[in-house]
Design goal:
The protein is an alpha/beta fold. It folds into 3 domains: about 130 residues, 3-Layer(aba) Sandwich (Rossmann fold); about 60 residues, Helicase, Ruva Protein, domain 3 (Orthogonal Bundle), CATH 1.10.8; about 150 residues, Up-down Bundle (Zinc Finger, Delta Prime, domain 3). The chain is built from 17 helices and 9 strands. Helix 7 crosses helix 9.
Length: about 375
């Protein structure tokens, strides 16, 4: 961020990552360092990608009559780089430096392309690491507090004038979840409530930070997958009392808690089952660190899993849950969801117990 805030902005700046809050921070730094006008770009409704790219290239290459060059910001520009889009941007750079500056944000970019190599060499490629909230798969034994997310949170607190130890950061992420924007908002509230103190203690988190329902759902899924039925039942009891937020951000209670939980589990497991079917025996390659996978296996995984940052979470589930366990658990969840929709009373406790047995009876992934 410091290099972007010091400027100048290169002719083409590409910010790669899947955390919108963190990307916006970088955009703010780049915008603040630019002396010229700011312009935002987005495809028009119904506009084809090729036509939108034509307009963007024209804007990039059109000089202004007065003042310095403009900074054109195009957010979520992944579609514009597909097909021959990346090659066309690289061709424009080959013709010479455009009069304006172009800033793109994308969720993923193949680092092997000529465009990526050229922009990286010019200092215009910023790749945000995935903020993993769990230890790497090859970590063995003992607690692991040095997750990417915890370390990012410690640094974010420092930027806000707060001191946050890793155990306290871990306690926050366990309550709030792995969304950087929500964690930053929570830090802001803590800064106000601490009334001038700068050292955030575990007690501050316990008193002032509520458990996120999204995090509770994730912990429930972890407990089911890891064979901890007693903890899973405790979590569903808490959800029944406190309620949970549905996908639209509404706090729901009663029967809607059961539906929300079952929807989340069904969607997650359906995705896993389809990926297991696509990978077959190749799923065993996921047990190896990425740098030990051969090119053929890596290409097969990329074709099925994609290259986005959220892939690491899907890989984690595929490693710890076999295809048979995922399929059996999916059947339990979807059967309960259908019964609920048909007006049949469904006990979340009973479904939780059946899910725990389904995960355990077919064994973990190898």
């Amino acid at each position: 961020m410091s290099s972007l805030s010091q400027g100048p902005v290169p002719p083409l700046l590409i910010v790669v990552g899947e955390a919108p809050f963190v990307k916006e921070r970088l955009l703010d730094a780049a915008i603040a360092s630019h002396d010229g006008d700011l312009e935002t770009f987005a495809p028009r409704p119904g506009e084809q990608d090729a036509r939108a790219l034509d307009r963007l290239l024209d804007d990039w290459a059109t000089a202004t009559l007065f003042g310095g060059g403009r900074l054109i910001v195009a957010r979520d520009a992944d579609r514009l780089l597909k097909n021959k889009g990346a090659a066309r941007l690289e061709e424009r750079l080959e013709q010479g430096e455009p009069p304006n500056r172009l800033l793109l944000t994308v969720s993923a970019l193949d680092g092997r392309t000529r465009l990526a190599k050229r922009v990286r060499k010019a200092g215009g490629l910023v790749s945000l690491p995935v903020l993993r909230d769990a230890p790497p798969p090859w970590h063995a034994g003992g607690p692991f507090l040095q997750t990417d997310l915890n370390q990012w949170l410690v640094e974010e607190a420092r930027l806000r004038g707060l001191q946050l130890a890793l155990p306290v950061a871990d306690a926050m992420t366990q309550r709030v979840g792995n969304e950087p924007g929500r964690l930053a908002q929570t830090l802001g509230r803590l800064g106000v409530l601490m009334e001038g103190r700068t050292q955030v203690e575990s007690g501050d988190v316990e008193r002032n930070v509520a458990h996120s329902s999204a995090r509770l759902l994730a912990r429930l899924e972890d407990a089911l997958r890891e064979g901890r039925p007693a903890q899973a039942l405790e979590l569903v009891d808490r959800m029944a009392v406190d309620g949970v937020y549905d996908p639209f951000g509404r706090l729901v209670s009663g029967a809607l808690v059961i539906e929300t939980v079952l929807r989340g589990l069904t969607n997650s497991l359906a995705r896993e089952v389809s990926v297991h079917d696509a990978l077959g025996p190749a799923v065993s390659v996921l047990s190896q660190p990425p740098w030990k996978r051969d090119k053929q296996h890596a290409a097969s995984l990329d074709a099925v899993l994609g290259q986005g940052g959220r892939r690491v979470f899907l890989e984690r589930e595929l490693r710890r849950t076999s295809a048979a366990a995922a399929r059996a658990s999916f059947e339990v969840a979807v059967t309960a969801l259908r019964a609920l929709r048909d007006g049949v009373p469904v006990s979340l406790h009973a479904v939780t117990a059946r899910l725990s047995r389904a995960f355990a009876s077919t064994g973990a992934a190898r």
